[in-house]
Each structure stands twice: as C-alpha cells, then as structure tokens.
Amino acid sequence: MNEYVYPLIAAGLGFVSVLLGVYGVFGFLSGAGNVERIRDRVHGGRADNGSALGHALRDAGRSLARMFDKLGSRVAPKEEERENASRLKLVQAGLRKPESYRVFQGAKAGMALIMLALFMGARTFLFDDMSMGATMFAGAGALAAGMYAPDLWLSSRLKKRQTSVTNALPDALDLLVVCVESGMGLDQAITRVCEEMRLSGPEISEEFYLLTLELRAGKKRADALRALSRRVGLDDLNSLVTLLIQADIFGISVGRTLRVYSDSMRKRRQQKAEEAAAKLPVKLMLPLILFILPALFATIMGPAIIMLGDVFEVLPN
C-alpha cells in the first residue's frame, strides 16, 4: 500500500509547490504593475508597459479572450432574462465591453472542459484502478468546479469593487457638500468630484464620470442617478440616489441632504470598523489553537519528554 501512496503524496506536494510558485510569480508581477500605476498617477504620466513579457502576456490574454468569445457565442444562454442578469453583474464588476458576456460564458465552458481533461489525465495515469461509478461522479465534480470557478472569480471581483466604492463614498460626499455649499450646481459638483477623486477613488470617479456623460447627453437627472445605482449595486449608493431624487422633486436643500447623509455614512463606517475589530479575537482563536499552541507545547514540553524517555531507559526493569 505504501508503494502506491508515497508517489501520490510526492506528486501532490510537487503540484502544490508549482502552483504556489506560479501564484507567487503572478503576484510579484501584479504587485510591480500596481507600483508602476501608482507611480504613474503621482507623476501624471502613463506607465511604460512595453516589456517583452508584458506584450507576451497581453497577446496571450487577447488570444484566449477571442477563443472564449467564439465559444461563448455558441454556448451562452439565449434567454433574455438570464442574459440581462449576467450582463448587469458583469457591469457591476467593472466589465462593460459588449463582448464581456460572451467571453465570460465561453470561459465557463472552457474551464469545465479543461477541468474534465485534467481529471481524465489524472485518472488515466494515477488512478487507473478507479471504478466506473467513482469516475463518473468525480468527472461530474470536475465539470461543476470548472463551470462555477468563473462565477466565484466574478463574485470576488464584484465584492472588491463594491468595497472600494464604499470606502471612497464618504470622501466623495464630503467633496460634494463643499462644492454644493460653495455655490455650484449638483451637476457641476459631480464633475468636480469626479476630477478630484481620480487618484484616491478611481472606481467611484469612473462611475461619476459616466453619470456626467449621461447628463451631458441629455438624460434626465433622476434616470441618470438610477442608472448609477444599478451599475454599482450598493445599498448605500441606492439610498443616496433616492435622497437626491426626492430632494430634486420636493425642492429640499441638496447641500443639507448630502451633509446629513455623509455624517450618517461616516458613523456607519466607524461602526463597521469597530465590529470588525471586535470579531478579530474570535477569528484569531482558530489559528491560535491549530498552529501556534501545538508548536508552543512541542517547544516547551519536547525536551522534558525526551529527558523522561532517557531516564526510563536508564532505570532497570
């Protein structure tokens, strides 16, 4: 039994090592790219991404996107309701290109096929004695994992973007209050906040920029604000949009409305931070019990146990 188990363990450890190495390389490259983008924003220029590795990665990404686009055009659901829901989620995650829906659906189908192929290769070379029932069950699991992996990535991207908007929204509201109370109209104030938040809050600056473009195109303010709320999908922004629409309808002071809502939002953010800090000791308990305490006990009690073993070996029977 051991002669079959040990190679599998070694192969698993090798796979995990290669996976962690690839993840570390990509993390280093993305971190370097973030540093370049931040330096670029500070100096007001554009990052130079003309390296051979950058060009190779971009070309590979574009080729893969074109392949997923062709695959997605064949396998994407044709129901209008499902398509609209998927497109809305992609827009909320910041993916607004017309072909994003087809590429995403193609990625789901492609990942499912890749996971199934990997499982069949592992089954052929490593688990050749697997029964037919277990093979079918594991193959279905590999298909499901490949199908839902892009959904998990999209949910993570959406949550990260909404978190960024949530963190930048109180500052944007303070700037709106200052601009409105200084005599600007709401449209001019939104344009100015869009320019000022370009570095500190690029996500909310982008959303305000789209709102400004819709207002300039002649769209009604209420409709443009509702479109902003749908694009972001955030409860705090939904409440702000509702307050602005009601203030516009009933003639309430926009500056006073924004100031009251900004104060309440800052209090909520402070309460969330205090709640997260209160949860921290509970979250630290699990790694403390599983990793830190056993190592501490082994360090403290290990020499004593070794000495006791030597003493009992010396004693006569």
UniProtKB/TrEMBL annotation:
Keyword Transmembrane helix: yes
InterPro entries documented for this protein: T2SS_GspF_dom
Membrane topology: Multi-pass membrane protein
Residue ranges of coiled coil: none
Parts of the chain that traverse the membrane: 6-29, 106-126, 132-154, 288-308
Any Pfam family: T2SSF
Major subcellular site: membrane
Compartment annotation: Cell membrane
UniProt KW keywords: Cell membrane, Membrane, Transmembrane, Transmembrane helix
GO CC annotation terms, alphabetical: plasma membrane
Protein's name in the database: Type II secretion system F family protein
Organism of origin: Pseudodesulfovibrio senegalensis
Organism placement in taxonomy: Bacteria, Pseudomonadati, Thermodesulfobacteriota, Desulfovibrionia, Desulfovibrionales
